[in-house]
Amino acid sequence: MINARCSCGGLALSLPGPSGLVVACHCIDCQRRTGAPFGVGAFYPAEAVTISGTPKEFVRAAASGGTVRNYFCPDCGSTIYWKAENLPAMIGVAVGAIAVANDPAPVRSVFEQSKHAWVEIPDAEHFQRSSAPKNSN
Ligand SMILES: [Zn+2]
Ligand SMILES: [Zn+2]
Question: Rounded to the nearest whole angstrom, what is the distance from the C-alpha of residue 98 to the centroid of ligand 1?
Fold first, then answer.
């Protein structure tokens, strides 16, 4: 098991191990969510994740359609996970909240249309927009 947690530790997730689906996302919403030039999420089946603490929820429209629900700590403000309407069985976990130095690298790099020119994600599949096979836009 590995853990993800917010800055203060009030909100935490228990995860079964390293994720096989790590995605770097350069969309503007992920930039705003993280305050970083891009977001990186490790995706897990929702039933494999145990949540402790009581998050606040922020719902936004996803650039790839549907909504994304972001869950953040009401005390320190870190978003540590999210659920996308397009991927209802999965939870995205903020890789920065896992804080394991040798966590797997991204296998996909999405929304490169808004990627900062100096950012390079090596050894990943690259997408200008969403990697979703249907309803991609
Ligand atoms: Zn916190
Ligand atoms: Zn994004």
Answer: 14
Q: How far is the CA of 59 from the centre of ligand 1 (A)?
A: 19
The whole-model pTM stands at 0.92
The sheet with strand 90-94 has its strands ordered as 56-61, 67-72, 79-84, 90-94, 39-45, 21-25, 108-110, 125-126
Ligand number nearest to the C-alpha of 131: 2
**Alpha helix stretches (DSSP H) within the chain:** 28-34, 95-98
Give the ligand with the smallest distance to the CA of 37. Answer: 2
Mean pLDDT across the chain, nearest whole number? 93
Using the mean position of ligand 1's atoms as its centre, give its distance from the Cα of residue 134 in Å: 36
Ligand with smallest separation from the Cα of 115: 2
Predicted pLDDT of residue 137: 38
CATH code of the domain occupying 2-126: 2.170.150.70
Ligand having the closest approach to the CA of 4 = 1
Q: Is the pLDDT assigned to residue 109 strictly greater than 90?
A: yes
Residue 130: the pLDDT is 87
Dist CA 60 CA 57 (whole Å): 10
φ/ψ of residue 95, rounded to 5: -65, -30
